[in-house]
Amino acid sequence: MAALLVDEDPETANLHALSAARRAGRVAVVRETAAITAYRTGDFATALRELRTYRRISGKNDQLPMMVDCERGLGRPERALELGRSIDRAALDTAVQVELAIAMSGARIDLGNPTAALGELEIPQLDPTTAYSWSPALYSAYAATLEELGRQDEADEWWARVDRAAAALAEIADENAWETVDVVEEEVEGHDERDAVVGDESVAGDEHGAGALDDTDQLGDDVDPDDDLGEIDDDNPRDVDGSAAD
């Protein structure tokens, strides 16, 4: 239900997601959904708490960019930069690397350092010759940062690239709209119908026994300001206020 409502009614979607989190608090996707819907309503404290829980349960860092952006939304750009540097970016999927670069650039803007913000965006994926799903957002952030620096002519070129990339991606989506995939169902050898019944019963039983949240997963817990942050690398050439990037 939350997924269906998040675009048109994020507040109601968030209520559904939080209700689901109370019943199935140890399910990673439930906590992730609660985080995303809270983020969409501007409740960055709740979103950050839920994202930390999702990260702990799943062991994944795919929502790190949103966590960084939540720190920005809470008025803590320095914490945002510290969090973004706590993970090896090379270990992230390419799309997540791009999202993180955009979030980190925004934190640099928050600190009044557009030069360092531009440097955050100058990553290998900033390639004007090839359009990927992340290209319009990356190009847009780059163009906006160029405008912050007063480099309007360059910014205009990148805004034009945003339009071209979006058009190319839309064309590809239209071409693939009518593609079909054949699904072949195979009977699993040795499958016993009685096993399925027993499995269903065991799942049903778990719904009554494993849905409660433990003390660390309660929705009302305060956010620990030191939770999930890596140590700052003293050898990292990028300092928090961006002066090293000037």
Model description:
By secondary structure, this protein is mainly α. The chain is built from eleven helices and no strands. The chain has helices at residues 2-5, 10-23, 28-40, 44-58, 64-73, 77-84, 94-110, 114-121, 135-148, 152-175, 193-209. The longest helix is centred in the middle third of the chain and has 24 residues, at 152-175. It is globular and about 55 Å long. It starts with a helix and ends in a 37-residue tail after the last helix.
Overall spatial form: globular
Order of helices and strands: HHHHHHHHHHH
User: How much strand content do the residues show?
Assistant: under 5%
Q: Number of helical segments?
A: 11
Structural class estimated from helices and strands: mainly alpha
Distance from N terminus to C terminus (CA atoms, Å) equals: 47 Å
> Could you name the ranges where pLDDT drops below 50 across 5 or more consecutive residues?
1-7, 179-186, 191-246
Reported for the largest beta sheet, the result is: none
- Radius of gyration equals 22 Å
Roughly how much helix do the residues carry, as a percent range? 55-70%
Report the strand count: 0
Quick check: average pLDDT? Answer: 76
